[in-house]
């Protein structure tokens, strides 16, 4: 894939005006308050694994509307805490998989909570375990247009709320230091991490890697790759729905959430990325509110970004901030 977006010097200055609803903050305050008021317990159950240097737990916590969401928790074997924690969100279509698939954070001394993404987990990987018990109006296959008629019904309202409640859940655990919690994720997980950073307070870091779900109005018309193309195909049928669709998406745009995020942040972008074009990533990064922010750029990579190279950068960034 050749480079197709703005040159890097222009990307570094790219701060587009993005549609932002007047009731954005009220919408999210009410959404989170309702879900927290719904209650529900955080249930942590030990699970047997082949691991000898990490203890694994099957976690169920209350997400959107108090609905049960699954996660894996890994902690260093025998650790009594309080530990710094990393809450991680997954890429599009993937589930939480198996508890021993992701060992980098626990091997580095963190409690690691990996959140299942409701309704996903059947496109790749080792599967998911969380249903999305909500219907939807007319939509294109995938998740991008589910409930897109209104922000109250949109699929990512539930997912973003689950993410914030995952942060709440990990902070409630006795082995975790509630003041040293970070969020991370790649692609869809990166977009969710930005939203979690914008909707949560007191996070020690946010680590969005090649994030999805940013600058929708550019992305939908700029790339011919899925998942953004799901919206294109929906609009090609619902020909008069464009304004309504982008109004809904504005409540979930990573740019608007980045404007509110105060946690130190390390982003990444691939300059040849056709899935999450670099201009959409830089739009969120350049609007990110915290002064302590940086971005790693991979000039000859597509959506894979830096992979293990980026994880090493994240680990160093986070270690410098958890003390």
TrEMBL record:
Phylogenetic lineage? Bacteria, Bacillati, Actinomycetota, Actinomycetes, Micrococcales
Q: Which InterPro entries match?
A: AB_hydrolase_fold (IPR029058), AXE1_dom (IPR008391), CE7 (IPR039069)
Looking up SUPFAM superfamilies in the UniProt record yields: alpha/beta-Hydrolases (SSF53474)
Q: Which residues form the Acetyl xylan esterase domain?
A: 1-319
Gene3D superfamilies attached to this UniProt entry: alpha/beta hydrolase
Q: Which species?
A: Microbacterium terricola
One Pfam family it belongs to: AXE1
Q: What is this protein called?
A: Acetylxylan esterase
């Amino acid at each position: 894939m050749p480079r197709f977006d703005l040159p890097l010097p222009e990307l570094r200055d790219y701060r587009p005006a993005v549609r932002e609803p007047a009731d954005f903050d009220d919408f999210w305050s009410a959404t989170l308050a309702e879900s927290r008021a719904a209650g529900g317990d955080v249930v942590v159950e030990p699970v047997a694994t082949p691991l000898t240097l990490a203890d694994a737990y099957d976690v169920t916590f209350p997400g959107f509307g108090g609905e049960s969401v699954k996660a894996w928790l890994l902690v260093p074997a025998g650790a009594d805490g309080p530990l710094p924690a990393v809450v991680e969100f997954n890429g599009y279509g993937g589930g939480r998989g198996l508890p021993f698939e992701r060992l980098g954070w626990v091997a580095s001394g963190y409690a690691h909570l990996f959140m299942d993404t409701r309704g996903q987990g059947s496109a790749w990987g080792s599967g998911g375990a969380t249903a999305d018990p909500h219907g939807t109006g007319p939509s294109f296959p995938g998740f991008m247009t589910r409930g897109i008629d209104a922000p109250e019904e949109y699929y990512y309202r539930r997912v973003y709320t689950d993410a914030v409640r995952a942060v709440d859940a990990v902070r409630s655990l006795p082995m975790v230091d509630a003041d040293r919690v970070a969020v991370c994720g790649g692609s869809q997980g990166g977009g969710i991490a930005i939203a979690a950073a914008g909707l949560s307070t007191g996070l020690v870091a946010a680590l969005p890697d090649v994030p999805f779900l940013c600058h929708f109005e550019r992305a939908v018309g700029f790339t011919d790759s899925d998942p953004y193309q799901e919206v294109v195909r929906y609009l090609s049928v619902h020909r008069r729905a464009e304004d309504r669709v982008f109004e809904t998406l504005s409540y979930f745009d990573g740019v608007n959430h980045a404007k509110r995020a105060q946690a130190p942040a390390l982003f990444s972008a691939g300059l040849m990325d056709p899935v999450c074009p670099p201009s959409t990533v830089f739009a969120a990064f350049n609007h990110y509110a915290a002064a302590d922010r940086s971005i790693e750029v991979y000039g000859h990579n597509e959506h894979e970004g830096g992979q293990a190279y980026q994880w090493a950068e994240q680990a160093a960034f986070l270690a410098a901030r958890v003390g």
